[in-house]
Design a protein that fits this description.
alpha/beta, Aspartate Aminotransferase, domain 2, seven-stranded mixed sheet, 16 helices
């Protein structure tokens, strides 16, 4: 006899008890990386504050069904959004009595949406241009490339110095054309955690009559507190002449639930082209400040509750703990033979690479760290920059720092004992010569199977426990082939569960 209550995809023949559904979700979550505990150095931001999750979840639940589509219908959400924008604007050098008293902003669903909207506002402010362009350092977040792709804007990339990992203002100035609508810089860059020369870049943008956006999605809620603690943070916000917009993610170092970001403009005239309005149809007149129309109030309420609960004193304490953790992790790298820092940490990132030891494979090291419970983020080599390992450091890491050094040394020893990954000659040749156009779904499926990837089989798991071989293959491939390989692989993972 068939069990009609057995789950079939997400829709069983008969509804299931709530407790069973929650048990299923918990079972699925068991395969995830740990979001708490200070051992995951990417994707999530854990302050390690007792009770904060419960507060944010309760606030989220209060407003989960509130719809941000119409602020006149749900003024509570408008009030919370305005409060978040005001807090971010004041923290980043704007507001009454500042050099930028007329700062305005919008709450978005994340940093990528904020960057897309910054590009849209700049593009739409110059409707006379048929081929608008933006200038972005190669270290700028990939979301700028996504914005350029979505909005049909040309992307002019500026190289970074291999030692400082920063672009020069002179190179930015040389890249600006009459069609340039926006110049971007980072505070800090995600990959390496360094702050671009914002004041110099903003000056050359202003001289050319071009908007300058500071992507502070990653560090905008960390750098001001670090500065208050005495860190030598260079000017990067609205105190800098020529900075016209800034993005800052609250679901990063404001430790709010995902996804909440704030896009700020120096004044309302600069923000105006960001909006979309449409009345040429028989339904309601659509007016959207951001990309989404319907938006849940849950994340915004969660962010509001988080900021209200932690306050300035709380964020200062968390920044101090994070700074202490960064110093401890960096010291562990300095004292580990075979490794070096890509750059001295100046924000909340520790980025390490090899010192030339041919017996130590960074990608194997990443796997060995994961086997010891430390989940780091490998970064492939690019344009003369070596492969590296990225650690996003949060306040929750501070209590675990003493454990990291011995585990790092042990992982290095194990990586040396295992030896570097050696790809078969034919696979290496394929990676270096295959064109993206020749990469069929069938070929990717075969590669995935050969590398031990499950190809979307939920029973087998989406990826193996060790990824060094995969990362070595990607590192050997040209950039365009890397992109296509990963697009096709994700396509293999995203299959209907019938």
């Amino acid at each position: 006899m068939t069990d009609t209550t057995a789950p079939t995809g997400a829709l069983p023949a008969e509804g299931l008890p709530a407790a069973r559904v929650l048990d299923e979700i918990r079972a699925l979550r068991a395969a995830d990386r740990p979001t708490h505990g200070g051992r995951l150095f990417a994707y999530v931001y854990d302050p390690g504050v007792a009770g904060l999750d419960e507060l944010a979840q309760a606030a989220y639940a209060e407003c989960a069904h509130v719809n941000g589509l119409d602020p006149t219908a749900f003024p509570s959400l408008l009030a919370m959004e305005n409060a978040l924008v005001g807090a971010a604007g004041r923290l980043l050098g704007g507001g009454p009595g500042s050099a930028a008293p007329d700062v305005v902003g919008s709450v978005t669903g994340g940093g990528t949406e904020s960057l897309i909207l910054a590009v849209k506002a700049a593009r739409d402010a110059r409707p006379e241009l048929t081929e608008p362009r933006i200038v972005v350092p190669v270290s700028g977040h990939a979301a700028f490339a996504k914005a350029a792709h979505y909005l049909r804007v040309a992307l002019d990339q500026v190289p970074v110095d291999p030692e400082t990992l920063r672009p020069s203002a002179g190179a930015v100035a040389a890249a600006i054309r009459p069609e340039t609508v926006l110049v971007a810089c980072s505070a800090p860059s995600y990959a390496h955690g360094v702050v671009d020369p914002v004041a110099e870049i903003a000056a050359v943008a202003a001289a050319a009559g071009v908007r300058c956006h500071v992507d502070a999605c990653f560090g905008g809620w960390a750098l001001p507190w670090l500065r208050r603690l005495g860190a030598p943070v260079p000017p990067f916000d609205f105190t800098v002449d020529g900075v016209t917009s800034i993005s800052v993610d609250l679901h990063k170092y404001a430790y709010a639930p995902k996804g909440v970001s704030v896009l700020l403009h120096r004044d309302a005239a600069l923000r105006a082209p960001q909006y979309f309005g449409y009345a040429d149809w028989p339904g309601y007149t659509m007016v959207n400040p951001v990309i989404a129309s319907t938006r849940s109030g849950g994340p915004i309420a969660g962010a509001y509750a988080t900021l209200r609960h932690l306050g300035e004193d709380g964020y200062l304490r968390l920044a101090a703990a994070t700074r202490e953790a960064v110093a401890g992790l960096a010291d562990a790298v300095r004292h580990t033979d075979g490794l070096r820092l890509m750059t001295e940490p100046e924000s909340t990132v520790v980025c390490l690479t090899g010192d030339g030891d041919p017996t130590l494979d960074l990608f194997v090291l990443v796997d060995e760290l994961a086997a010891r419970g430390w989940h780091t983020q490998p970064q492939l080599s690019y344009a003369g920059l070596p492969a590296s390992v990225h650690l996003t450091v949060t306040a929750a890491v501070a209590p675990r720092v003493a454990e990291f050094g011995p585990d790092l040394a042990d992982a290095v020893a194990a990586a040396r004992a295992a030896g570097p990954v050696r790809l078969p000659d034919e696979l290496l040749a394929l990676a270096r010569t295959l064109t993206p156009a020749a990469l069929t779904p069938e070929l990717v499926a075969g590669l995935a199977a050969g590398l031990g990837l499950a190809g979307g089989d939920p029973a087998a798991g989406p990826v193996p426990g060790r990824m060094a071989v995969v990362n070595t293959l990607l590192d050997a491939a040209p950039v365009a082939l890397r992109e296509r390989l990963l697009v096709e692989f994700v396509g293999l993972l995203q299959r209907p569960a019938w």
